[in-house]
């Protein structure tokens, strides 16, 4: 089973979801902006993906700067509390599969988590080719 912690308003998240589906899998989709996060859930995801609250912090198009969270002296526990209160602060998409857990930015990161690569050609929503007609990743 593949699980995507998804924000439908995020282009990268939509691309990752499309790539998973193109591989023949329908993932479990968690709209974390609607459901929120729990501390155990975030801690487990971060540990599995080798992330820290700082490395998982969404700094663009989020209230992180206004909340004073970008200062490197802000402790991880403060970041975690902010993420629990404001789910938008967690960078996305985070994908979990039997092959591991990753923050899939850029969106091509998801291919390492899939059992099979989608048949090409595959494009991002902006038209950029990511897999060619022969099934090779395009740099």
How is the secondary structure organized here?
Blueprint: E1 3-6, H1 11-22, E2 28-31, H2 32-35, H3 39-48, H4 76-85, E3 94-97, E4 100-103, E5 122-123, E6 129-131
Parallel strand pairs: 1-2
Antiparallel strand pairs: 1-3, 3-4, 5-6
What do these coordinates show?
The protein has 139 residues and is an alpha+beta fold. It has helices at 11-22, 32-35, 39-48, 76-85, and strands at 3-6, 28-31, 94-97, 100-103, 122-123, 129-131. The strands form 2 sheets. It has a 4-stranded mixed sheet with strand order 2-1-3-4. A two-stranded antiparallel sheet has the order 5-6. The longest helix has 12 residues, at 11-22. The chain is elongated.
Name the strands of the widest sheet in spatial order.
2-1-3-4
Order of helices and strands: EHEHHHEEEE
Assigned CATH class: Alpha Beta
Tell how many strands the DSSP assignment holds.
6
Count of separate structural domains: 1
> Approximately how much beta-strand content do the residues carry?
15-25%
| Average of the residue pLDDT scores | 95
So how many helices? 4
CATH architecture: 3-Layer(aba) Sandwich
Class derived from helix and strand content:
alpha+beta
- Judging from the principal axes of the Cα atoms, what is the shape? elongated
What is the percent of helical residues?
Answer: 25-40%
Which parts are unreliable, with pLDDT below 50 for 5 consecutive residues or more?
Answer: none
- Superfamily at the CATH H level? Glutaredoxin
Please summarize the sheet with the most strands.
4 strands, mixed
Termini, distance in Å? 28 Å
Query: How many whole angstroms does the radius of gyration measure?
Result: 16 Å
């Amino acid at each position: 089973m593949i699980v995507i912690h998804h924000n439908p308003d995020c282009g990268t998240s939509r691309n990752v979801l499309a790539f998973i589906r193109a591989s023949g899998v329908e993932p479990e989709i968690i709209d974390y902006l609607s459901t929120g996060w729990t501390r155990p859930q975030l801690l487990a995801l971060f540990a599995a993906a080798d992330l820290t609250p700082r490395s998982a912090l969404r700094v663009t198009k989020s209230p992180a700067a206004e909340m004073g969270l970008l200062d490197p002296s802000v402790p991880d526990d403060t970041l975690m509390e902010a993420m629990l209160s404001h789910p938008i602060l967690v960078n996305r998409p985070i994908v979990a599969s039997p092959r591991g857990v990753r923050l899939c930015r850029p969106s091509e990161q998801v291919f390492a988590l899939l059992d099979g690569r989608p048949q090409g050609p595959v494009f991002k929503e902006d038209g950029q080719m990511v897999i060619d007609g022969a099934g090779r990743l395009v740099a």
